């Protein structure tokens, strides 16, 4: 057999590695900042851009899509070339992929800080960036599948299976969850409303964890862990079984994020059942990783790379054990809306994703720069600081979450709630402080790595094109026709591209479906009416400032929640909510029944200085809402967009909307005047007050008899 | 809950892709050998010859 000579592209691996490190530091800094915001609210410097509600999406998006995202591409571009015994399909596509992704991240951060957000967690980026993500993802796909097709090794190693599943599923999730109708060149409304939006969002949100933070990293683990330990994976058969089981089960587990909400009960149960089953394939992967090191634990003692990987895989095992447990309804009743969830995801993010990334970087940088690592000792120090950081981060938050949930549910013997909401917050502030210390340690560790890798790079020289040799794939494998098809497409990249585009256009067909379905989104509670133009503007401000990141709008049917907040939430109340704003965390109290609870002046003073109305509150002041003017130029476009989505405003209402808006704003201004507050009627705070006073009030208009029928209707 | 139909269509089409991939992988003999693939990846860069070559790879057998 004739050997072919070719070169691996290490330059692109280097670029993704640098991007991983750079965005990792940025993402962690943002995380530390928002962690400090939680006990020191003025850490936002009084600026809108650096307030928790805007910085938190920057943190999550930077860590998930920038740090881990670039980490995935670094791992894929390095391992895929070697597993396929081929250079990447196209250097141009590699570069387009790299720069496209970095541009999306940079613009993403800027738009999020400026308040342009869809209001859907982990999918906050607005529609132009959503399109850009789809394009870059397709470029990545063409490059990856092109490489797979022109491979010189007929066997697809299990890591490649994980990469393929990642690509296919993320493409689908992103497209389905990003249906939105633009009303300006940068802002849009979610296509779905209320319960439907919640279901799609968490179907996406959960699978983003599954197919962005898990499957690609399992692929990376299956390549880099055996390489670092220099021994084959424990059981190749187990890896195959656990791959197929994992991708089959993961996609159905999303509803476990919506237990006890207004989501139909059968969907909740389905999510729970699949989540429990997920334990098996997840642990299959963890055990396969750990058993690979059997008889090689002496190496773990010596090698920081393996140390990082062992802790990463262990954290993966812990997080995937905890996940199914949190999906049990009785556990979820306690854990949901508390810091328990935050602790859980950080075991995954800091432990599994972070440590695996560090391990791969320490292993890979010296190889592509053809020089030993600058300091093993420093890497080991990084490992220990990081590990202590994770413990100091997670343990206080588990404690905080558990404590707070129990305090929420505590009643006095005579049947009253024992604690004010604020008491449960101030009680756990010491945990928040400890958590940020843990995060700081983790970040210090990352800085040690930057220094260590920088010295390594300085000592070596990049092997930009690494020579390799392999025989071509044998001409005849099994069926001749299949071989012919392969060969045909192999020599024709343009056709390949066209076929890929056709495959992707199927997404467009799926896109049509919701258009038809939106009509069936009939209001089930007669008294629930669309928002007035002013309330709609106020709601957009609520979304812009990221209020949903600390306040839920979903009262679960528990005694304590009904006693604290009011009547539990019904599905029919949210039919005009594009996007839904149920939230997933209660750093502050639930707002589903906030309407009419306090006078307008209370909201005014509370937004201006939260601590003047509730001493000890950790909410930041929103002073800019008092200076900013409501952008009424967009009102007609917003109304029209809502009409397209099926919200029953009267025909031609877009022309009249601003008149109604002004009238309502004037009446709020008058109410405030009675409390000796003087504010311009077109200040943003007026719109926000209008919205807050509306939330959850519609069903109060109903008689009890009506209410009972509505609940039955709703359960359908 | 009409959106469930969208999610089902999307999920099932992906499941179909995976099923196709699975059948292909079995037919193609991807799983016939469970011994050599995990070992083979350990040897791929046994002789890393350092060499600079700026141009894109040309496949000779096409």
From TrEMBL, chain B:
Keyword ATP-binding: no
Alphabetical list of InterPro entries matching this protein: Cyt_oxidase_maturation_cbb3 (IPR004714)
Coiled-coil intervals: none
Positions of transmembrane segments: 6-26
Alphabetized UniProt keyword annotations: Membrane, Transmembrane, Transmembrane helix
PANTHER family in the cross-refs: FIXS PROTEIN
Name of the protein described by the UniProt record: Cbb3-type cytochrome oxidase maturation protein
Organism: Hydrotalea sandarakina
């Amino acid at each position: 057999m004739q050997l072919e000579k070719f070169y691996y592209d290490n330059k692109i691996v280097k670029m993704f590695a640098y991007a991983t490190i750079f965005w990792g530091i940025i993402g962690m800094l943002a995380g530390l900042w928002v962690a400090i915001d939680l006990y020191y609210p003025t850490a936002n410097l009084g600026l809108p851009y650096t307030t928790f509600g805007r910085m938190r999406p920057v943190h999550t998006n930077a860590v998930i899509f920038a740090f881990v995202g670039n980490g995935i591409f670094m791992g894929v571009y390095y391992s895929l070339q070697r597993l396929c015994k081929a250079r990447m399909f196209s250097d141009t596509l590699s570069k387009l992929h790299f720069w496209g992704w970095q541009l999306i991240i940079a613009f993403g951060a800027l738009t999020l800080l400026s308040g342009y957000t869809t209001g859907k967690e982990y999918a906050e980026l607005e529609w132009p960036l959503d399109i850009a993500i789809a394009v870059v993802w397709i470029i990545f796909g063409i490059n990856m599948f092109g490489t797979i097709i022109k491979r010189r090794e007929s066997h697809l190693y299990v890591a490649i299976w994980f990469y393929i599943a990642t690509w296919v599923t993320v493409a689908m999730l992103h497209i389905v969850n990003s249906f939105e109708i633009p009303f300006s060149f940068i802002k849009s409304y979610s296509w779905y409303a209320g319960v439907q939006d919640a279901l799609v969002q968490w179907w996406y949100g959960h699978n983003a964890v599954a197919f962005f933070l898990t499957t690609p990293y399992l692929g990376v683990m299956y390549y880099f862990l055996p390489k670092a330990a220099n021994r084959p994976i424990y059981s190749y058969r187990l890896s195959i079984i656990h791959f197929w089981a994992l991708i089959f089960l993961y996609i159905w587990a999303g509803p476990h994020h919506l237990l006890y909400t207004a989501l139909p009960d059968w969907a909740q149960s389905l999510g729970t059942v699949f989540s429990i089953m997920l334990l098996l394939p997840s642990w299959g992967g963890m055990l396969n990783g750990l058993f690979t090191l059997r008889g090689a634990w002496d190496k773990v003692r010596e090698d920081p790379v393996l140390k990082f990987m062992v802790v990463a895989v262990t954290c993966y095992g812990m997080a995937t054990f905890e996940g199914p447990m949190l999906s049990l309804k009785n556990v979820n009743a306690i854990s949901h809306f508390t810091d328990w969830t935050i602790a859980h995801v950080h075991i995954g993010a800091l432990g599994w994703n972070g440590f695996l990334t560090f391990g791969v970087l320490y292993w890979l940088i010296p190889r592509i720069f053809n020089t030993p690592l600058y300091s093993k000792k420093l890497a080991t120090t990084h490992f220990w600081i990081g590990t202590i950081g994770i413990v100091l981060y997670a343990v206080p938050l588990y404690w905080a979450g558990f404590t707070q949930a129990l305090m929420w549910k505590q009643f006095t013997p005579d049947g009253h709630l024992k604690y004010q909401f604020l008491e449960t917050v101030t009680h756990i502030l010491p945990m928040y402080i400890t958590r940020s210390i843990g995060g700081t340690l983790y970040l210090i560790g990352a800085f040690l790595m930057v220094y260590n890798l920088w010295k390594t790079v300085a000592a070596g020289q990049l092997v930009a094109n690494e020579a390799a040799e392999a025989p071509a794939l044998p001409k005849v494998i099994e069926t001749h026709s299949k071989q012919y098809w392969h060969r045909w497409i192999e020599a024709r990249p343009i056709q390949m591209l066209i076929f890929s585009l056709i495959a992707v256009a199927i997404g467009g067909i799926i896109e049509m479906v919701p258009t038809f379905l939106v009509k069936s989104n009939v209001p089930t509670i007669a008294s629930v009416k669309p928002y007035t133009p002013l309330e709609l503007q106020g709601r957009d401000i609520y979304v812009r400032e990221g209020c949903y990141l600390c306040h839920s709008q979903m009262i679960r049917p528990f005694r304590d929640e009904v006693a604290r907040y009011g009547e539990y939430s019904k599905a029919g109340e949210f039919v005009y909510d594009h996007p839904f704003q149920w939230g997933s965390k209660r750093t502050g109290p639930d707002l589903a029944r906030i309407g009419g609870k306090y006078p307008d002046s209370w909201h005014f003073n509370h937004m201006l200085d939260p601590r003047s109305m509730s001493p000890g509150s950790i909410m930041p002041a929103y002073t800019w809402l008092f200076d900013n003017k409501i952008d009424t130029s967009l009102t007609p476009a917003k109304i029209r967009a809502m009409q397209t989505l099926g919200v029953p405003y009267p025909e031609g209402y877009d022309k009249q909307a601003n008149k109604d808006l002004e009238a309502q704003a004037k009446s709020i201004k008058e109410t405030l005047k009675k409390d000796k507050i003087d504010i311009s009627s077109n200040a943003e705070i007026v719109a926000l007050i209008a919205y807050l006073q509306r939330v959850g009030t519609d069903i109060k208009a109903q008689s009890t008899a009506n209410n009972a029928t509505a609940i039955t209707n709703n359960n359908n | 809950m009409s959106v469930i139909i969208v999610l089902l269509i999307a999920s099932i089409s992906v499941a179909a892709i995976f099923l196709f991939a699975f059948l292909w992988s079995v037919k193609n003999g991807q799983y016939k050998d469970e011994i050599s693939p995990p070992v083979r990846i350990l040897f791929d860069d046994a002789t890393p010859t350092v060499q600079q070559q700026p141009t894109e790879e040309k496949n000779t057998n096409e």
